Amino acid sequence: MGHYPLLAKEGDVTIGGAFSIHTKITQPPLSFTEKPAYLTCSSVNLRIPLRQFRFAQTMIFAIEEINKRDSLLPNVSIGYRIYDNCGSTLTSMRAVMGLMNGGEWAVTKSCSGQSAVHAIIGESESSLSIVLSRTTGPFEIPVISHSATCECLSNKKEHPSFFRTIASDLHQSRALAQLVKHFGWTWVGAVNSDSDYGNNGMAIFLSAAQEEGVCVEYREKFNRAEPEKVMRVVEVIQKSTARVIIGFLAHVEMTNLLEQLSLHNITGRQFIGVEAWITADSVVAPNSFSVLGGALGFAVPKSNISGLDTYLIKDFWETDFKCKEKDKGSSSERACKVNHDLDELKEYVDDVAKLTYTSNIYKAVYAVAHSLHSVLNCSDSLGCNKTKALTPKEIMESLKKVNFTIKNGEQVWFDSTGSAVARYEVVNWQQDPNGLIEFKPVGYYDAFLPPGQRFVLRTEEIMWPGGNKELPVSVCSESCRPGTHKVLQKGKPVCCYDCIPCAEGEISNTTDSTDCVKCPEEYWSNQNRDACVMKNVEFLSFTEVMSKILVFFTVFGVLLTLIVATTFLMNKDTPLVKANNSELSFLLLFSLTLCFLCSLTFMGRPSQWSCMFRHTAFGITFVLCISCVLGKTIVVLMAFRATLPGSNVMKWFGPVQQRLSVVAFTLIQVVICILWLTINPPFPFKNMKHFKEKIILECALGSPVGFWAVLGYIGLLALLCFIFAFLARKLPDNFNEAKFITFSMLIFCAVWITFIPAYVSSPGKFTVAVEIFAILASSYGLLFCIFAPKCFIILLKPEMNTKKHMMDRK
């Protein structure tokens, strides 16, 4: 049995058409005894969708318009053969064979391998277009689709003769990923048709989504003939946590899914759609908006072709109502009545006003015409070379180069894959004041603009699911605030993570940081761990309470020393003052004053000079002090030696020798300090190791050898002084100073022996405080042990301050 074209007209050249003018409502399953080759559209229940019928009308309109033009194919008429494939792959195959071999139009001709048409417009769906392209490919017959978007059709090795006046899904899939990322949706579900169109488009989307950092919770697919899989998809959507669903579906599959979602009352999801269903009339139903309200998606931009809408409405009127407008002098046609039911016509007029895919068919016909015009070497004056033999390959090669502008000013050309320019309108499912569903444009996407200008969205005009104006959230994990970083949850996608606070000394100052950054050495993290702040610099300043206490005892010690010196000065001629070597006593009081004052140099912000001065001042003043005490001790020993018969000891340790010994002992310390300052002096140092969160500003020793040499020399003199004083402690005298010196040296040594471990273990500014305490304690020990007994006698027991009492022996 043959297969007849639904619509046909003879011409010098012929363009074929293949559309799903009838679609199946129900079809019983075929048994193995049935022969699908004989299946015709009349063998099943059918309906005629207005949109598909309009495609055929648009093709005829464009052909008739070209035939009336003098500038395009001036002396060549275009004919057409339009077949109905009924939306069936089997019927589509027979339609293709009919287009290629002429069908019943060529029953008297033998099969010569010469195609009955020079180009084919169609199919509407990608799967049928693949069948059409693979069948015509070996014969190099150009096929131009108006709505097949599968990226697989861009493969010129498999589909060398395929063209389309719509963009490839490569751009739409990438645009979907960018749209999802734009709104911050990083956790989405994905459902696609189990077909070449759905599988290829979803594969591109998943790859683009991964690049954009979007995670897919689930990916489900089903075919229109698999109702059990639709139920599985519904169950997955119902259990999922993703609030955004990417639907890369043909309009038939989307209609099936919508019905089940409505039955199960699954609402509140944000659907993101593709051009195949986002504006499809078949998806619009009374319960559609409860599920798809607020949906966003890409649609083919509207295109206004002048005269097309009038033609389509007139043709529909004549076809559906079986009448024509009454022409003057003509009585062959039945005149149209004025009382026809116009409800169906109103629906048709509204549909025509959209003019989306219909304009793509118009462009496809004109592309073929311009290609033929070039191949036939047409000119306005000479017309076309009608004797030239046309080959499909010539037409195909010419199509690759076409570049023309249709009458609405839109430019038409094909890229290297045979696809049109990728331009989409972003539409939003909304309701008008009457409660009717409208597809409101809220932006556009143009893949051929620079990257930063491709997307334009008017977000304030978008209505989200449930009629909300607030952007829905769809994330696996909430964003990690600054101060935390993401740690992936084991076994889950990268969008599922825990927010862990940054460690001390580390920060993250961006949302969703993958790691924390360590602060520079002199900085530390703030409490929120989102910024590095300068570390607090710590040193023993004069404003601290501890410093004030130490200053008080320093000043108090100086005042006591001055009081003692004044007392001694006022009683310098008394036997007690004379007997205790007044010159060394005053020198000792002077050195004690310096010892008290040198503690002040350890306070305040360390600097290069203060670090050098504090240690040298401490070392020299204490040596001066101990030298005086040592001199006094030696004088006591010599004095009692001098009382022995024939002793001449005091001649060798008189006042001059006493002064020289003090100077000599002190000069040794001065030399040690000079060597220390010359070789490796103390310097201010920022200690950042002891405390992580603050900087200890301290004086580094420079040369530890120099520091311990200064302390060691002081300790040596103190030890000598202690030994001499201990030897002289029991000498017969009413006032033996040696026992007080012994006690003072015990205190001095005890203080500095305990100072060493305390100095090493004390942190930060407390190290300095320990050093000051040791200086003050040892100074107070010397002052009280040596001078308190003398002041007691001078001020409270003046009767004991006589030469007789001083000379009496126990």
UniProtKB/TrEMBL annotation:
GO terms for cellular component: plasma membrane. Pfam families: 7tm_3 (PF00003), ANF_receptor (PF01094), NCD3G (PF07562). Residues 546-810 form the G-protein coupled receptors family 3 profile domain. It comes from the Eukaryota. It is a multi-pass membrane protein. InterPro entries: ANF_lig-bd_rcpt, GPCR_3, GPCR_3_9-Cys_dom, GPCR_3_9-Cys_sf, GPCR_3_C, GPCR_3_Ca_sens_rcpt-rel, GPCR_3_CS, GPCR_3_vmron_rcpt_2. This is Extracellular calcium-sensing receptor-like. It comes from Sphaeramia orbicularis (orbiculate cardinalfish).
